[in-house]
Design goal:
Helix content of chain A: 25-40%
Distance between the termini of chain A: 78 Å
Strand content of chain A: under 5%
Shape of chain A: elongated
Strand order of the largest sheet of chain A: 1-3
Low-confidence stretches of chain B: 1-21
Oligomer: heterodimer
Largest sheet of chain A: 2 strands, antiparallel
Number of strands of chain B: 30
Mean pLDDT of chain A: 84
Shape of chain B: globular
Radius of gyration of chain A: 28 Å
Radius of gyration of chain B: 30 Å
Largest sheet of chain B: 30 strands, antiparallel
Low-confidence stretches of chain A: none
Distance between the termini of chain B: 22 Å
Number of strands of chain A: 4
Order of helices and strands of chain A: HHHHHHHHHHHEHEHEHHE
Structural class of chain A: mainly alpha
């Protein structure tokens, strides 16, 4: 049953609104007469803070997002008379949300992010009134949200060796910024996209794998120049240590094969050194490169990463 | 009056939660009154799921622990606590949210806490722990196994989260500890390899403070951070070892290595941004970190060489490494018309890795005292990207862009540690140009089509497998209605990197499709399939039987098929049944048995050496089923079973079958 008092207030506010030609703000008290289900749990919503702080209607409550509602009320709930996010173009959704949420560092690059250019807007992932995750108002658990579109990544996380995303230990946002990363500053810069840097301007891998961070007296240049992905598949792999090959020696040889002086490969630009002549690949012993070259990410004591 | 169907909207989301779940426990179902209980000025919503996990593993248990690792025992499988002030003006806090998963003894434990007082403060904590067990059988003869625990925690505190001035403080800690194996090669290039025992102990702490101030429409944000890192992972071998090669006469009698490593990375990050202007937006960022690590290395090895002579070797190294990193970026977004967005992004990144060190090596009385040639490596990258998005109509949009990157690598290294004269200094630059184009269509409201293409050229890639001449295509189609969504996706990535002596080609093709259907409250369905194809062919050269073999190719083929299926049924809101199946299979290049090299084949031929390494057919599957019975409005009983099966086609040394399950009680109030 509609509370008669509420109805009276609504009609009064509605009349006031109609006294002016343009839509006016009627206040959240009017909205809850028709949307009690939304209102009932709204105090648990972070957006309720604006109401709790007593800010005026344009900056608080329902109309701070949905716009002035007098026409919507007059039209008995016509969606076209209000900012209805369910029918709004993605660009308009972004504009509306960024009116308040733009000035946050994590969203500084949202305008140029891959999600925005692919018309993935805020309400593709966030559900303001029906969030399953109170924190950040996500429509689903983060992993499920990302997998909805990134099916190929889901497949990678289903491999035997993987970062524990499905198990709940990690989340996609540990490495990626879904609102657009600041500046990919490794590899050649333009790729990869949406990967967030660690605080020290490094690959996000270094947030957890701090022992690989260095600086080392003898760096493995591929790690620093092209990044961890030169050898590892970060989402998942069928191979131990998330390696891109089932055995180590083909992985090593694919770079360490010399190369012509015109190749430009390597830190000196004249090719990457092949293995030592003392190695005999016909002998299985020499096919376990990292048995001897144990410090393959970098060493402080041996230029060949032997210790 | 409350409308029950809508008032319980969190309950309606339960099917979605269930479908997203890949591990059988914790249970996705919810019980109880979703509105919670009112306690004073607060509303409290709480749930606990506690139960017993059971496990039976046959086959390679080490591989099971590496892949899955769930164990027997009592667990707090999940818990959730939400406390919200009803008026939003409580005295100490207005919101408290605590979620946990796997506490007790699960290998993957996670909890997060948020406490917030509206407009005054916000505190976030994320704590997690992972048991990392990796036998690494395919690597280094299985000598690099690890059984460590990694624990991470992040604390973030914000003062005045809605104000024009905000203050931040934070602390993060990451540790890794536990036993591991390693190996060492002694005493010279014709020596032998020996397994070692090590005790991993790594600790990282980071403190940060910062603030944000809003002035004239701009927001200035700065953070100052101090990271410290300490590692002390000694390696030890106290017993005599003949090494990996019994025919070799080298013997290691005793080995000890200590290598403490400690340092700090103070950093600054300053950002300036504005994005609430009708015609433009701008953000700029500057960061600088100044990493430094002090290290010492002391290694003693006592044994006999291949001629039977006594060998004692001690290596002492001490020094300092430094890595200053400076990065800056400027992004300018222009909105000249309501339907046009143009964004330009410029980025700069400069890294220098430098240092100094002393090395002392004592070898059977001979004394060498030298500087370690701390190799200098400097990388400077400049990038510029311009992207434009034109919305021709509300349902048709075009995208185009040009991306440019220039990288300079400077290097100084010595050919030999003791050879001061032969110092090699090098500098190289490479430039990458890439163009992107895209089309977004929405022919009818539920259907979205996205097409993207990218083509790039790099004039001097760093390694044979780096991007040189590459192109990528990407298409996505999505049909999404209220209870039904179908998504299809295709992506190809081709890269060719050819020089006069070596050729590398990499072709990756991904296809996937997914279906989600929620026709009724009591029935939901989710299914998907992905095919990830990768084939690479790379020119290689190597030594075999004293001969330098060139002109060979390393060919790798992977044909990965991954499918998943999940269905949820609810019977009269009392019984909920969930069944799921996940199947991942790499069919490789189609072979199912190892090929034996033909007799008399040249040992330098890749046919003999590499064929078995070039494909890795395997399968990893996991069906699961779960029944959840609602006992009363606050209590649910759950039981579930999940099977994990892993096998390799060519040489199944790591296969296993694991029967896991759980029974639990979920209590909500």
């Amino acid at each position: 049953m509609v509370n008669p008092l509420r109805l009276l207030v609504s009609i009064a506010l509605f009349a006031i609104a109609f006294a002016h030609g343009e839509p006016n703000y009627v206040g959240s008290a009017v909205c809850k007469t028709c949307h009690p289900n939304v209102w009932a749990n709204f105090y648990k919503n972070p957006h309720y803070q604006t109401l709790a702080l007593g800010k005026p209607a344009p900056q608080s409550g329902c109309e701070s997002c949905h716009g002035p509602a007098s026409d919507h009320v007059a039209a008995k709930g016509d969606k076209t008379k209000i900012v209805a996010f369910s029918v709004l173009a993605p660009e308009k959704v972004l504009d509306n949300c960024l009116a308040c949420h733009a000035n946050t560092l994590g969203r500084a690059n949202i305008r140029r992010s891959s999600h925005t250019t692919a018309r993935v807007a805020c309400n593709s992932c966030h559900s303001i009134h029906r969030a399953s995750q109170p924190k950040y108002l996500l429509a689903k658990p983060q992993t499920a949200l990302c997998f909805d579109c990134h099916q190929n990544v889901r497949a990678q996380f289903s491999l035997p060796f993987k970062h524990r995303v499905i198990e709940g230990f990690m989340q996609c946002s540990d490495c990626h910024n879904p609102h657009g990363a600041a500046a990919p500053t490794w590899s050649m810069g333009v790729r990869p996209r949406m990967v967030d840097t660690a605080l020290g301007n490094e690959q996000p891998c270094m947030k957890c794998h701090v022992d690989k961070r260095g600086p080392f007296a003898f760096e493995h240049p591929a790690v620093r120049v092209d990044g961890c992905e030169s050898c590892h598949a970060p989402h998942g792999s069928a191979n131990a240590r998330l390696l891109r090959r089932p055995q180590v020696f083909p992985l090593c040889l694919e770079c360490h094969s010399g190369g012509a002086a015109d190749s430009g490969f390597g830190r000196q630009g004249d090719g990457i050194r092949p293995q030592s002549a003392s190695h005999n690949m016909a002998d299985p012993r020499y096919r376990n490169c990292t048995t001897c070259h144990v410090r393959i990410h970098g060493s402080n004591a041996d230029r060949r990463f032997l210790r | 009056m409350r409308r029950p169907g809508l008032a319980l909207c969190p309950l309606a989301l339960a099917p979605i939660l269930a479908l997203a779940q890949q591990t059988v426990a914790p249970t996705g179902a919810r019980v109880g009154e979703a509105r919670g209980e009112d306690v004073g000025d607060y509303n409290v919503l709480n749930s606990f799921e506690t139960g017993y996990r059971f496990l039976d593993v046959g086959g390679n248990r080490g591989k099971y622990r590496s892949d899955v690792n769930f164990r027997n025992g009592i667990r707090l499988l999940s818990s959730s606590l939400s406390v919200n002030s009803k008026e939003g003006r409580a005295r100490w806090f207005d919101t408290l949210q605590l979620n946990t998963q796997g506490l007790g003894n699960d290998p993957y434990q996670y909890s997060n806490l948020r406490v917030e007082k509206n407009a005054l403060y916000r505190y976030d904590l994320i704590w997690r722990s992972s048991d990392y067990f990796n036998p690494a059988l395919g690597l280094a003869q299985g000598w690099h196994a690890m059984d460590t625990t990694r624990r991470l925690q992040d604390h973030d505190f914000t003062l005045f989260p809605l104000g024009a001035f905000r203050f931040f403080a934070g602390f993060s800690r990451a540790t890794q500890s536990g036993p591991a194996l390693s190996s060492v090669q002694l005493f010279d290039s014709r020596g032998d390899e020996y397994p070692l025992f090590s005790n991993v102990d790594r600790r990282q702490n980071e403190f940060r403070i910062g603030s944000e101030v809003r002035l004239a429409g701009f927001k200035l944000h700065w953070i100052r951070a101090w990271e410290s890192y300490r590692e002390d992972t000694p390696a030890l071998r106290e017993t005599r070892s003949s090494g990996a090669n019994p025919t070799d006469n080298n013997v290691l009698n005793q080995f000890k290595r200590t290598e403490p490593w400690e340092g700090s990375t103070p950093s600054w990050r300053v950002s300036l941004l504005r994005d609430n202007n009708r015609y433009w937006g701008v953000n700029a960022r500057f960061t600088h970190s100044d990493g430094q690590r002090d290290f010492a290395f002391d290694e003693t090895a006592i044994g006999t060489n291949r001629f039977g002579g006594a060998v004692n070797r001690q290596v002492l190294v001490a020094g300092t490494g430094r890595r200053p990193v400076t990065a800056a970026s400027l992004t300018l977004s222009l909105f000249p018309a309501a339907n046009l967005t143009v964004t330009n992004h410029s980025g700069f990144h400069n890294t220098r890795i430098e240092g100094d060190a002393r090395l002392q090596e004592l070898d059977n009385g001979s004394l060498l005292n030298s500087l370690v040639s701390f190799n200098y490596l400097g990388i400077r990258t400049f990038t510029n990207q311009t992207d434009a998005l034109l919305r021709i109509t509300p349902r048709i949009a075009l995208r185009g862009g040009y991306w440019f990157a220039n990288r300079r690598i400077r290097s100084t290294e010595r050919e030999s540690v003791f050879d001061f004269a032969n110092t090699v200094q090098a500098q190289q630059t490479n430039t990458q140009h890439a163009g992107v184009a895209g089309l977004r269509l929405q022919p009818v409201r539920p259907l979205t089509l996205v097409f993207d293409a990218e083509i790039g050229r790099n004039d001097r890639p760093f390694s044979p497998i780096s991007d040189r001449d590459y192109h990528a295509f990407h298409a996505r189609a999505q049909w999404k209605q209220r209870s039904f969504a179908v998504t299809a996706f295709a992506r190809t990535n081709y890269n060719f990197n050819t020089t006069s002596l070596l050729a590398h080609s990499s072709r990756s093709r991904n296809y996937s499709a997914n279906l989600s259907w929620l026709p009724r409250d009591w029935f939901t369905l989710d299914a998907g399939y992905s095919k990830l194809h990768l084939d690479t062919a790379t020119g290689i050269a190597y030594f075999a039987s004293g001969r330098f073999v060139q002109g060979e190719r390393s060919i790798y083929r992977s044909n990965l098929h991954a499918g998943h299926f999940g269905a949820r049924f609810a019977i009269r809101s009392r019984i909920e049944l969930y069944t799921g199946y996940s199947h991942t299979q790499d069919s490789g290049d189609g072979r199912s048995v190892l090929e034996t090299p033909p007799a008399g084949l040249d040992p330098g031929s890749s046919l003999a050496l590499f064929r078995q390494a070039q494909t890795f057919p395997m399968r990893f599957l996991s069906p699961l089923a779960r029944v959840s019975v609602r006992i009363n409005s606050k209590l649910r009983w759950n039981v579930g079973y999940q099977y994990y099966g892993y096998g390799e086609e060519l040489l199944d040394l790591q296969g296993y079958r694991a029967h896991s399950g759980y029974t639990s009680v979920l209590w909500s109030f």
